[in-house]
Amino acid sequence: MIYNGIEDKVAIITGAGMGIGYAIAELLLQNGACVVINDVDKEVVENALISLEEKFPDKCSVFVGDAADIDLIDRLVRFTLKQYNRIDFVIPNAGITLFGDFFKFKPEEFDKVIGLNLKGAFFLVQKTGEIMKTQGRGGRVVLMSSITGIKGYPDLTAYSMTKAALQMMARSLVLALAPYQITVNAIAPGATLTERTEKEEPDYAGTWGKLIPSGVVGEPKDMAETCLFLLSDGAAHINGQTLVVDGGWTAIGRYPKDLD
Ligand SMILES: NC(=O)c1ccc[n+]([C@@H]2O[C@H](COP(=O)([O-])OP(=O)(O)OC[C@H]3O[C@@H](n4cnc5c(N)ncnc54)[C@H](O)[C@@H]3O)[C@@H](O)[C@H]2O)c1
Fold first, then answer.
1. pTM of whole model > 0.85?
2. If I label 235, which of 124, 178, 199, 222 is the partner at 20 to 30 A Cα–Cα?
3. In terms of CATH architecture, what is 10-249?
4. What separation in angstroms does the CA of 157 have from each of 70, 113, 115, 145, 180?
């Protein structure tokens, strides 16, 4: 699919060495954008760069570091401006899924989840929003929420809280960013087959597919296509929204007899 308004734009994507972030980077490049991919894992992101550079020479750069670190965010933004002289799209995709019993969850674990999923996203959008505002050409923000931001699941309270907060962040930031033609939306992926989720559960597609009406789990490219739409000219009037991409998982309810 060709998306209008992507060509020659410049995007920052965090946590893009693999999984959903990598798929977004690849689709952006296919549509003519330049991308800066960030990841905390040097080896993973450098390998990602090698595969992307092969297909899209001189269109992709890497910035290694922790997307929860405010100093890193500052350097990432400055690096992007130095490389490409503009910023149009920002996708704070890096997120940590930390499972843990509520009664045993530690303050340092809580800080880690909040630090990356929320604080990292907030300050990256603040920093890039300022640049897009000054450039005067509008811009796009796509936050990476989750269906756990809509429904509660055992052992995922801190993570789910951050994913619900990102949906509120999209709504709330409309006030600050819409006057500058910057839209801010979120994607809420359902069960998505990535390198990480497959490692956690080797038969991921079979196990998690049971929860989805179509029987099919999501793939990174499903989230990438949704993201590209939200970044494209066609989505210019969509603002403050969360798009659930879960194959219908959260659309269905259960009767008491379903529990038998
Ligand atoms: N995969 C799913 O089923 C699913 C479902 C709902 C929401 N999400 C959300 O989508 C986003 C991407 O998910 P994924 O499964 O593709 O990710 P992932 O866990 O596979 O991680 C992708 C990359 O992020 C990097 N990363 C981790 N911590 C980082 C940090 N502090 N700074 C920079 N990079 C870091 C990792 O090294 C990895 O290469 C996350 O925010 C996740 O919460 C995923």
1. yes
2. 124
3. 3-Layer(aba) Sandwich (3.40)
4. 25, 10, 15, 14, 35
Instruction: Please give the structure tokens belonging to residue 244.
Output: 């659930």
Sign of CA dihedral 192, 87, 77, 81: positive
Q: Is 191 in the pocket of ligand 1 (CB under 6 A)?
A: yes
Distance 211 CA to ligand 1 centre (A): 21
| DSSP assigned state of 181 | T
Beta carbons of 87 and 80 less than 8 angstroms apart: yes
Instruction: Assess contact for 113 and 146: CB atoms under 8 A.
Output: no
What's the rounded Cα separation, in Å, for the pair 42 and 65?
Answer: 8
Mind listing the pLDDT tens digit for each residue in 184-196?
A: 999 999 999 999 9
Residue nearest to atom 3 of ligand 1 (CA): 192
* Gap between the terminal Cα atoms of the chain: 44
pLDDT tens figures, 130-172: 999 999 999 999 999 999 999 999 999 999 999 999 999 999 9
100 SS3 class: coil
Q: Where are the domains of the chain?
A: 10-249
